[in-house]
Amino acid sequence: xxxxxxxxxxxxxxxxxxxxxxxxxxxxxxxxxxxxxxxxxxxxxxxxxxxxxxxxxxxxxxxxxxxxxxxxxxxxxxxxxxx
Length: 83
Hints:
Elements: E1 5-10, H1 15-25, E2 34-39, H2 44-50, E3 56-59, E4 65-67, H3 72-82
Parallel strand pairs: 1-2
Antiparallel strand pairs: 1-3, 3-4
């Protein structure tokens, strides 16, 4: 796995987003990958596109996205497909 840069699209007071971030940070398979949290409320376009779908995991390099619900198995499978 190369140095993929992951984006977790989220917003404040989103319990599912908090769960998704905790899960990502607990996955040893993602060691070495950066995870950046982006608050969709700060950007009108992101909010309009993702407000009803967060949390959404994005690959900053390919632009691929994985919508909730996801678990460690589906995240690893998705990462394998984005390469």
